[in-house]
Amino acid sequence: MNAQTLVIETTSTEETRELGARLAPLLTPGDVLALVGDLGSGKTTFTQGLARALGVTSPVTSPTFVLINRYRGAGGISLHHADCYRLNHARAEMLDAGLADLFSGDDIVLVEWADRLAGLLPEDAIWIAFTYLADDRRRIAISGGRRAAAVAGELTARGGAP
Ligand code: ADP
Ligand code: MG
């Protein structure tokens, strides 16, 4: 992860979903979101808000039986949702599942526990780190390269923290 570009605190589940929803329209084809943080820190919650704002109507849960879930949003957008939590050999298993091909494609790809992928992520991934602060409070930090800076800049311009 590179320099931190934006830090936000949310005080409820819905606020974290709302942050995901605000980020969704700022994404461009091929963006990769690398989510990191402990169990229960809010990664899936954030993903639910993001997916909803992309027009996904089916319920978003962490992938269990398949490694990567694909959701269709509005206007032909595809969102791929991967979760490395249960994997013993995340990098190899995700390579087998075709994640590297998705990274070089034009769909939006979101990976929970992305820090387990050891170097597989593209240089321009948007890293989003979740930290548990208290029951309902989470710290959410966006960092990375050019795309992370662009997204963070737009979020700030549109009102900063939710
Ligand atoms: P992860 O995917 O990181 O394991 P989840 O999003 O599945 O975490 O779970 C987060 C849990 O914490 C949910 O039960 C959610 O309702 C709760 N929660 C409470 N406050 C917040 C908050 N501010 N942001 C995100 N989740 C929160
Ligand atoms: Mg999760």
Topology:
Elements: E1 4-10, H1 13-23, E2 32-36, H2 43-53, E3 68-72, E4 78-83, H3 90-96, H4 99-103, E5 108-112, E6 126-134, E7 137-144, H5 146-157
Parallel strand pairs: 2-5, 2-6, 4-5
Antiparallel strand pairs: 1-7, 3-4, 6-7
Helix pairs in contact: 1-2
The protein binds adenosine-5'-diphosphate (ADP) and magnesium ion (MG).
Description:
With 162 residues, this protein is α/β, with parallel strands linked by helices. It has one domain: P-loop containing nucleotide triphosphate hydrolases (Rossmann fold, 3-Layer(aba) Sandwich). Helix content is 28%, strand content 28%. The chain has a seven-stranded mixed β-sheet. A hairpin with a 5-residue loop joins β3 (68-72) and β4 (78-83). α1 crosses α2 (43-53). The chain is globular and about 40 Å long. The model has no long low-confidence stretch (mean pLDDT 93). It binds adenosine-5'-diphosphate and magnesium ion.
Order of helices and strands: EHEHEEHHEEEH
Structure summary, number of beta strands: 7
What is the residue-mean pLDDT, rounded to a whole number?
Answer: 93
Low-confidence stretches: none
* Portion in helices: 25-40%
Q: Which strand order spans the largest sheet, edge to edge or round the barrel?
A: 1-7-6-2-5-4-3
Q: Could you state the CATH homologous superfamily? A: P-loop containing nucleotide triphosphate hydrolases
The total number of structural domains is: 1
> Structural class of the helix and strand makeup?
alpha/beta
Notable characteristics:
28% helix, 28% strand, Rossmann fold, seven-stranded mixed sheet, binds adenosine-5'-diphosphate, alpha/beta, 162 residues, 5 helices, 7 strands
